Amino acid sequence: MTEDIRVVAHFVDGKLLKGTTRDFQPNRPSFHLRPPDGGEPYEVISTGLKALFFVRDLKGKPQRRNIRGFLTAPGATTHGKKVVVRFADGEILYGYSHTYSEQADGFFVFPADTSSNNLRIYVFLAATTAVKLGPDADSFARAVLRKRIA
To answer: 10-residue block means of pLDDT along the chain (150 residues)?
Structure first.
């Protein structure tokens, strides 16, 4: 038996789709999403997606943006090395990744804030403007924090 996985699909045009999936594979051009009300699943084409958020709850929770916590966190955990992702729309994601590669179409990120609603996020590289790893991620986060304080 395949488990229903709760996801929120964020598109580069700002559209959001919520539901469950059983067949998302990063190397496939589409997957099926069943709406939260239990209707028939429909096909979601991966082109145009910014990120696919694997979540605890489809209702969501206010996202904490604790840059200071990210800066004091270890440089690596069991989820990989520190990573900062800037999306083309300006959103910034802080977390850890084992799977980032410039040659891939995307990669998984585990959020730095383990108490957030997000369990993991699949980032579509085409929707990003910057990806920084390790010490570069810390430098990037410090620069963002300085801009927010100024």
So the answer is: 87 96 95 92 95 92 67 90 96 94 95 90 97 95 84
Q: What sign does the dihedral 98-34-8-103 (CA atoms) show?
A: positive
User: What is the pairing mode between strands 5-11 and 16-21?
Assistant: antiparallel
Domain count, the chain: 1
Residue 94 within a domain: yes
- Is residue 72 domain-resident? yes
Distance, in Å, from the CA atom of 102 to the CA atom of 45, rounded to the nearest integer, reads 22
Largest Cα separation within the chain, whole Å, is 53
Candidates 24, 52, 26, 43; CA nearest to 118 is 52
CB burial of 79-95 (b: ≥16 within 10 Å; e: otherwise) equals: bbbbbbbbbeeeeebbb
Compute the 3-state secondary structure of the chain and give helix, strand, coil in percent, each to the nearest 5: 15, 45, 40
CA nearest neighbour of 57 among 113, 130, 6, 127: 6
CA distance 24 to 101: 19
Whether pTM exceeds 0.90: yes
